[in-house]
Amino acid sequence: MTRQWRWGLIGVAVLAGLVAGAVPVVNGWQTQKTWQATIEALDTQLAAATGGEAGAQVVAYERGLYSARTTTRLVLPAASLARDSRRELALPPGPPELVLEQVIRHGFRGVRFSGHLEPRGPLAVPYARLGGNAETLQISGHIRPGSQALAVQTQALEGPLDPDGALQLRIEPLQLETRYRDGSSRLETRLEWPGLVMTAPETEGTLRVGRMSAESDARLVAGTLAEGVWVGEGRYSLEALALTPALEPGIALEQFTLTAASREREDGLIAGTLNSDWARLVLPDTPPLRGALEVRFDRLAPAGLLALSRQSGATDLNGLAGAGQRRALALLAEAAPRLDLSRLRVETEANAGLNGSMELAVRPAMADRLRTGQAGMALWSAVRLDAEMGLDETLARALPAEQAAWLRQLEGFGIVERREGQWRLAVSLTDGQLSVHGRPWWGGGGAR
Questions:
Q1: Which residues sit opposite 99 in a β-bridge?
Q2: Which of 72, 143, 172, 432 has the most crowded Cβ, counting Cβ within 10 A?
């Protein structure tokens, strides 16, 4: 019995060794198969979207027992670099290319990859001027049972964009991290970027992008990781954005934030809110403004959002480009979606400004009308809209002469009214009937 147990244990040990030795081989084979299938799918999507002018290709894939080396090329349309930009930056002809070189390690604990992305073709010229090399843009991550992770890190780039040095650019290091958990279908993302500065010394022009950060925690409710509909929370912030020409005032935005929160209702539809505010916005011929807004949405169908995201071209209600857009919008319409602008306030430092609100509701009747090819008022009559806006008189008096003249003309037509220290506009659309300040204005054929 002892000898039998001994041989049995030896057999188990040998079998375990064979299995352990086979794991990296199986992982490596599966990784290569998945990678090539992914790039082939990307190539098909790019070709379809650009008429065959863009594509992706696995140039080389050398697989060993525990690791592999792969080179992948992404070709962009030649038209993505405008002719004027090519001339000003002295770029050679040809389509822009990006080459991704990766070392993939497939062991017992899954797959880890690391490597770099480097421009080729016309993009390689300014990239080299800025000091870019194979170490500048690093990409790494892992694929394990239950989770996937991706990290992108860049080094600082600085130098002239053009051969004469008329444009100088500095791009600060960027860090992007994402993690996807299969079990919960959750995607976590974090971005940190100190920004960039571009200057034109001869004209004293400057473009400055301040610190930018973003983070999100979302759950997939429809579609795939690469193309899906998500619910969750997210936040984006921008410290500053300023364009300063040789002659003031220029354009500036300071302390801008955007937050979003959405959830899946018990009936499978999506509801959520979108909030934004900024501390200071400077535009030509306008006093500095601060502002805030809140948008609420409800009853959005994930299937409709997914279908709409897969469409391209025009999607307006009067000139839809094709049946695909109509089918996608019909999926949204039959759920009776709502969109409310619950808060809007833009004001000067002296508290003079404008405020507004809006409620938009779509009736399910629009779905059948979209599917049968109807347009115009047949669609708008399935929409209910109530909107109000008020402009403080103190801000109206500060408007440039041309805009002030427009405001007086609108008052003459009865579109705006002065009351309670504001120029007011109130509009409603119900069953195709447009009313302004409660008075019928248009009913599908003309003014009343």
A1: 73, 118
A2: 72
